[in-house]
Amino acid sequence: MENHKAKLRHILEDALGIETIETAFCGMIVHNENDEDQDIKELFQNVFKPFWASVPVEAREQLLLDFVSFIYNENNPRRIDIAFGLLGSLVESSLIPARLVCDAILNTPHLSFQKEVMWCKTFQLLLRIIGGVDYKGCRDILSLVFQVFLSIPSVPDAAFTDRIQACVKVVRYILDRNACLLPAYFVINEIYKNYPEGKVKPHWAIAKLLSDFIESFRPLARMVSVIGRPSLLPVIGHPGSFVSVWKLDPNTLSFPLKGLLPYDKDLLEPQTKLLQYVIAQPYSRDVICTMLGLNKQTVNGLLGIVSFFQETYLGNGVVKHATSCLDFGGPHSSILSSELFHHMAQRPSVTCDIILCDKHQVARLGISS
């Protein structure tokens, strides 16, 4: 491995060899890339191709990391420019997979926002070669780019413009549906995974870009959901009423919505109004059990029900005496007695205790207005 590393370094030094005068005046010389750099790339590939073929497959990834480290340890802008061009040419000539190069340049510890030239060249190369990555790789790269944005200062500064725009261009390109790099639904999954709503805010430079992309899914979210559903109420006891369509998540008491889509907020909130209405109806015990998925084997809805009772009926927190025992799954007790629920709904001023019991947990709950 050390022999391959030394040989790689020797090949790179030969390819990046430039005249002393060019090194001294690199910032003042205008290079014709079509002529000079193309010749350098052809000579480099002629030497690199047989060398790369001789490297064992299991050692290639580490050798590529050494290649990237060599570039990031350079200080001369001209050598940096040539080195990134050589790395890109290896991808374009299919000598090295684009996915490996993208992972190597994004995961290197040498990537620093403070090094402007290196930072811009990195994302310019990423923008240039990411089209050769499959959709699974693009999803991982998008997640890595989101992580990179965490290292970018959130305070606007004109000096950061070029570096920030270099990153934004990569994100915009991946999000572009016409580029066909990544299915849009996978993109929105990555956005919600990296920036959970109400918890983590994206960097201001990509906030509008991500917001517009999410909003483009709003019509789809309304197509697969019922508009105004929280305002609809079931007819309890009617033979043609299907209770299964009113099922709630037993932990959150909200509608079980599928997929990470920008649903209306009222669909994501606990449906306390619906529960209060159902509890107030006679003979609603079985309906409640069906809505929350309760049965004699499992008691998945205990926490959700307790929270609902606490928020709805526990007004002053006064606990006086127990009036009922609801044994979920017990052979001698009723499950969520409809008479008790009806009593609570019609007379919320009554204070009572409910003991929710099963084999594993006992929750003592005071109920009052």
Automatic annotation (TrEMBL):
It is found in: Nucleus. The lineage of its organism: Eukaryota, Metazoa, Cnidaria, Anthozoa, Hexacorallia. Belongs to the Mediator complex subunit 23 family. Its main location: nucleus. InterPro entries: Mediator_Med23 (IPR021629). It holds the Pfam family Med23. Keywords: Nucleus, Transcription, Transcription regulation. The keyword Nucleus applies. This is Mediator of RNA polymerase II transcription subunit 23. GO terms for biological process: positive regulation of gene expression; regulation of transcription by RNA polymerase II. One of its GO terms (cellular component) is mediator complex. The gene is MED23_1.
